[in-house]
Write a structure and sequence with these properties.
Length: about 375
């Protein structure tokens, strides 16, 4: 009776497994929307990775059911209270060969499709466009190679949500001011490196995860099938604000991508022109506040009070509020400060943005120096390599 019941259970499990092996989309309907499982994604590779994952998952389920089923059945069927007496024997060559050979065969069978999938993941040939992705503490820089378009992508979640003053939004800590825009049905090669420490660029819906390592350029690729917005995060612990380094990819039609590319080139030309003109104090303050909130407020706080001693206050500081500190202030923003968390922004921001943020810091938080820093002054301070 017990043996027949166990056989029925094992047969049912095996048939269910066969169904899932043959139809991974059926598994998707049950598990694809779960936050505990891999997403099916919107690329051919993401679907292939998902199917491979589910096949291996169900192989493990079958093995677990068989092993634990036999174990618990044996414990119940041959328990001492029922009068069972344990047999005493030593090695069995055939049994030992079987329990070595069977797992080996299973591993080889799993490795064959896994290796084929890995080969496809590493094949970046025949890409239609290239994007250089550079990790910075704590933002991403995207450069469309051959297009003269590049920009930083920064966290745009409102500070009020982070501080708890406002209710957190649906995409809390996953919003950026400028997403990576890619055309659908286009093979895009992604080149990843880092400007400081190791980062990792991960977008689950694209099945792309690659480390960005200083001094190295890693490659990956994607070909998105469906327009939409797909979010990810840095997945390598990279410092204090690691959790504030989101990734947003916006997939659009090829026609919309060309329009966006034209707009970006026009904006780049306007930004370059801004480095050549003189700005009014009001314009510098407006632009400077925006730059400060994006790049500086995380450490020095929105109110300029900082988090001493690691992140000193700007309000009332000798550097930001005195005439004697003006030159040091400019140098500090351009080149950072060795041995501290103060980053160098000379190669990150435009001359106009640097002039604006320094002007803002010297006239906000009660500093009121009246100083106006122009882009021309910043350009004079930049070293030739920058």
């Amino acid at each position: 009776m017990t043996g027949a019941w166990l056989n029925r259970i094992l047969h049912a499990v095996l048939w269910i497994s066969v169904v899932f092996f043959s139809h991974p989309l059926l598994a998707k309907n049950l598990y694809g929307d779960s936050s505990l499982n891999l997403p099916v994604g919107v690329t051919h590779m993401s679907r292939e990775v998902y199917s491979l994952h589910m096949i291996i998952f169900w192989i493990c389920v079958v093995i677990a059911v068989v092993v634990f089923g036999v174990m618990f059945w044996s414990l119940v069927r041959y328990r001492k209270s029922k009068g069972a007496r344990a047999a005493h024997f030593h090695e069995n060559t055939w049994v030992e060969l079987l329990w070595t050979a069977i797992p080996l065969i299973i591993l080889v069978l799993m490795a064959i499709p896994a290796t084929a999938t890995l080969q496809k993941i590493y094949d970046t040939s025949e890409a239609e466009m290239d994007v250089m992705i550079t990790g910075h503490q704590w933002r991403w820089h995207y450069e469309y190679l051959g297009q003269d378009v590049s920009f930083f992508s920064n966290l745009s979640t409102p500070p009020e949500q982070i501080s708890g003053a406002e209710q957190k939004g649906e995409n809390y800590l996953l919003e950026v001011d400028q997403p990576l825009v890619l055309p659908v049905d286009t093979k895009v090669r992604l080149l990843l490196t880092s400007n400081d420490v190791i980062h990792s660029w991960w977008v689950p819906q694209l099945a792309v995860k690659k480390d960005a390592i200083p001094g190295f350029v890693n490659e990956n690729w994607t070909k998105i099938d469906e327009p939409g917005i797909y979010r990810g995060q840095c997945t390598e612990l990279c410092g204090r604000l690691h959790g504030f380094m989101p990734i947003t990819v916006k997939a659009v039609s090829k026609e919309d991508y060309q329009l966006w590319l034209s707009e970006q080139k026009q904006q780049a030309a306007e930004k370059a022109a801004g480095n050549e003109r003189e700005w009014a104090l009001a314009d510098l303050m407006t632009q400077g506040e925006s730059v400060y909130n994006t790049y500086c407020a995380a450490c020095h706080m929105v109110n300029g009070q900082g988090i001493p001693p690691a992140f000193p206050a700007l309000a009332g500081s000798l550097v930001a509020s005195t005439a004697e500190g003006r030159a040091t202030h400019i140098e500090r923003v351009l080149y950072g400060k060795s041995g501290t968390a103060m980053a160098a922004f000379g190669s990150t921001l435009s001359a106009a943005d640097i002039a604006a943020v320094i002007t803002y810091e010297r006239n906000a938080f009660g500093n009121n120096t009246g100083d106006i820093i122009q882009p021309a002054e910043i350009k004079k301070q930049l070293k030739p390599t920058e």
